[in-house]
Amino acid sequence: MKRNFAVLGALSLCLWPWNTWAEESARDVSVSIYNGNLGLVRDVREFSLNAGKNSLVFANVAEKMLPETAVLQGDNLEVIEQNYNYNLQTPINIVDASIGKTVKTALFDETTGKTIFDEAKIIDSRYGRPILAFDYGIEINFPGRLIFDKLPDGLVSVPTLSSEVQTTQAGKHAVSLSYLTKGLSWKVDYNAELLSDNKLNLLGWITLNNESGTDYKNATLQFVAGDVNQVSGNGVAQPRALMLSARAQNADMAVMSKATALNQIPQEVGDYYLYRLPFKTDVLNNQSKQLALVAKKDVAYQKEYKFVSPLYLWNGLTGGSFEKQTPDVIVKLTNDKQSGLGEVLPQGIIRFYDKGNNEPSTFVGENVFAKLAVGEQARLKLGRSFDLTAEGKVLNVQKVAQNVVEAQIEVIFHNASSQNESVNFEQSFGSLWEISKENLQPKTKSADKAEWIILVPAQGQAKLSYKVRLSSVNNQN
Question: Is the dihedral of CA 431, 437, 438, 443 positive or negative?
């Protein structure tokens, strides 16, 4: 005999025993989405209310709604009570809510090809698997199906917030429900196409993920860049976050270009930046949606080859060397209008592609793009150079006094490419230092490091040579 277990039953809405049911006739939804798996939903619906008490039902609210954050508002409206009903009509919930009731059973007999119908009482349930009392005994692993005449009371087909309200004015009322929900998130991905050694095209996309448990049809969207504080444990956002988004959602929509969805200057609100979508869209449950954030052509950038010396130079130095080190390839982007940017850019992953002689673009590296304010510069490592290498060694270490040594340092740079390249070479020092002789002046100096700019000819080499005195603090005079 084939063993199957299933629960059958028609879907229905649970009814609450309140005075007058209000009829819903319109809907307007706006959603603010934060970093950190959090969203603020503002759901405005129109209800026909009678004078006195009325029962409102907001069906299809988010399954991951934080009910303690729900705020119901309307003109000439007093909220008496509100309930979040999330006991959904699932097979497990139907069985659990039917404990103590008698149901029909159906068992298919493969030998005869007939279905045997019977009745049993559900005396208990373990995770939706019923314990059934038949006339002939108790079944704990019944292999057939259960048939319900009706659904148990208290179950709903979709997450629902119900409320009892009172008004002195009969007629149509716009009622607003605002609440925080988990399951909404967004991130940014950037694509940078390198057109030449100093120009690139930048395209940024927002990826919106909806796992909140409901659809948002014809919704107004805005994205909040910045980290709002959330209380650990119960996951409820601080009131500032709710007030921030509520204020922003009530603001007038700005007129924006249709060429790129969010290609605009974001609105600054407090310590956050808001990116608004200039048109309404559907955001379905368990859906990822991509929206264009920014599209900039011919953005200026600088490419840098950066060597960080592995030599550890200090007043206890006795020697050291390194061979065939390769530099990091760094792209520097300055966020200003002169470079072709000049707008706040949210954090995201940026991927670089090199077009090179109008050939198909080649992926050349990626990095995390931290939030970039106007006027700031991003230094993004793409990888390591193939054509540039360096080798270095410590020569002629001499002890000139107690805790004081002098050493000759030599670094040779090689360039196998067909064009001249400029290399940044950085050397750190573990004690007090002073360069007494060098063939190239350092570009910058600080208390613990020096940096040189080395021009390495095509298919050639260049040398950096300097003499340094290293001493402890007690020997600085």
Answer: positive
Give me the phi and psi of 50, to 5 degrees please.
-95, 160
Domain count, the chain: 2
Rounded to two decimals, what is the model's pTM? 0.70
Q: 121-148 burial string, b = 16+ CB within 10 Å, else e? A: bbeebeeeebbbbeeeeeeeebebbbeb
Taking alpha carbons only, the member of 148, 161, 137, 186 closest to residue 33 is 186
Q: Tell me the backbone φ, ψ of residue 186, rounded to 5 degrees.
A: -150, 155
pLDDT of 85: 72
Query: What pLDDT is attached to residue 341?
Result: 94
Pick from 85, 119, 115, 89: nearest CA to 7: 89
Establish if 425 belongs to a structural domain.
Answer: yes
Nearest to 468 by CA among 389, 386, 395, 401: 395
> What is the rounded distance in angstroms from the CA atom of residue 59 to the CA atom of residue 165?
16
Tokens (6 digits) for 98? 């039917």
255: DSSP letter: P
**Which of 129, 147, 165 marks a domain boundary?**
147
The reply to whether 475 falls in a domain is: yes
Joined tokens for residue 114: 């007939």
CATH number at residue 412: 2.60.40
For position 111, which CATH number holds?
Answer: 2.30.30
For Cα atoms 225, 39, 69, give the angle at the middle one, nearest 5 degrees: 125
What six digits make up the tokens of 306?
């950066």
Q: For 126-154, what is each residue's pLDDT tens digit?
A: 877 899 999 999 998 899 999 998 888 77
Q: Starting at the edge strand that comes first in sequence, how are the strands of the sheet with 404-415 ordered?
A: 321-325, 388-401, 404-415, 460-471, 432-438
Count Cα atoms within 13 angstroms, Cβ side, for 368. Answer: 4
Phi, psi of 243 (to 5 degrees): -65, -35
- Give pLDDT < 70 ranges for the chain: 1-26, 86-88, 157, 231-265, 358, 473-477
Task: Determine how many CB atoms are found less than 10 A away from the CB of residue 436.
Answer: 9
Collect all residues with Cβ–Cβ distance below 8 Å to 64 and sequence separation of at least 6. 181, 182, 183, 211, 212, 213
Residue 390: domain span: 303-327+385-477
Residue 362 inside a domain? The answer is no
Helix (H) or strand (E) holding 94: helix 91-97
Identify whether the C-beta of residue 421 lies closer than 8 Å to the C-beta of residue 305: yes
206 within 8 A of 275, measured Cβ to Cβ: yes
Tell me if 143 is assigned to some domain: yes
